[in-house]
Amino acid sequence: MVHADAAKFAPDVTKEQAYEQVLDQAEGLFFEQRNWVCNLANTASLLWHAYKSLPAPSNQVNWAGFYTLDPQSRPGKPQLILGPFSGKVACQTIPFGRGVCGTAAATATTQVVGDVDAFPGHIACDGDSRSEIVVPIVVVPSAGSGGGEGRVVAIIDVDCTAPDGFDDVDRLWLEKLARLVAESCDWP
Ligand code: SME
């Protein structure tokens, strides 16, 4: 049964422990639920509350959420569209290849940006953001279905008002979360 306490984080947890709780709670919430809107919405909430329970710079996260592959992208011109998130109102669509999110989507690689002003093409949805991490969510076809290339279906985006707000711990755990989310949802 879903309970709001899933997003309650003890005040003295380490970043690793907070991420571990995010993954555990997400796995529980995804049980018998594969709707991507529902699952991304609860995951955005878990991430937000996890960051807010941590010391600086993590508690200076000002945006945590998702962009998904826009099913209305024009042929040959894939774009991301805003998905569930916690934080202020944000840009609605982002072409693959533009900004930090579009670069992660186009290259299917995690982007850790310590200073967003130094990132060519960074899209400043919120002028308060100083650093950012974007992790692609890639659906890998099962060997049974013939294998093949992975498909970027969404990205995780987290912004921070502190410079250098993210490190290898964030990368490691958000990449684990991206794999869990990829396999736990039915994507449009
Ligand atoms: N800064 C991002 C845009 C998304 S917002 O930060 C929520 C980018 O450059 O892709």
TrEMBL record:
InterPro entries: FRMsr_CS, GAF, GAF-like_dom_sf, Phosphatase_reg/MetRdx
PROSITE patterns, alphabetized: UPF0067
SUPFAM superfamilies membership: GAF domain-like
Domain GAF, chain residue ranges per copy: 80-182
GO cellular component assignments: cytosol
UniProt GO MF annotations: L-methionine-(R)-S-oxide reductase activity
One Pfam family in the UniProt entry: GAF
Family per record: Belongs to the free Met sulfoxide reductase family.
Protein name: GAF domain-like protein
Organism: Lasiosphaeria miniovina
